Amino acid sequence: MEYVRVARSGQVPDGYVRRFFAGELEIAVARLRGKPYATSNYCTHLDCLLSSGKLVDEGIGCSCHGSVFDLETGEPVCPPATEPIRTYPVREEDGEIFVGVTEQDVAEGGPRRRKAGR
After folding, report:
1. What is the model's pTM?
2. In the predicted structure, residue 29 carries a pLDDT above the cut 70
3. According to CATH, what is the number of the domain 2-108?
4. Which tens digits make up the pLDDT trace of 87-115?
5. How many CA atoms lie within 13 A of 27 on its CB side?
6. What's residue 44's pLDDT?
7. What is the distance, to the nearest Å, from the Cα of residue 102 to the centroid of all Cα atoms in its chain?
8. What CDD domains is this protein classified in (predicted)?
9. CB of 101 within 8 A of CB of 22?
10. What gap in Å lies between CA 117 and CA 31, rounded to an integer?
11. What kind and span of H or E run contains 29?
């Protein structure tokens, strides 16, 4: 695993989630109660962008249908989603946010929207 710089710390204020990329890997980076988190950017229910959602006490909420996912584990804590999202390790150093990804994560591009016909 390699830690990739994805953002400056100030780009993700407390209580917000933003979309960033680690190579071709699209991720949602959030900060809740001062701690940064990184997850896949698509809800497992109907592929809505999690970076368009809101942070709530329980985790990251999808703006489309209200699913909520735990930021530590990716597990859904509020339906309709029943499948977890992917989570990634995060380090914050010298005003920069780094996300831990593998070569396979970057090569696959991570979870993405479903392709037409699926």
Report:
1. 0.90
2. yes
3. 2.102.10.10
4. 999 999 999 999 999 988 877 776 665 54
5. 32
6. 92
7. 15
8. Rieske_RO_ferredoxin
9. yes
10. 35
11. strand 25-32
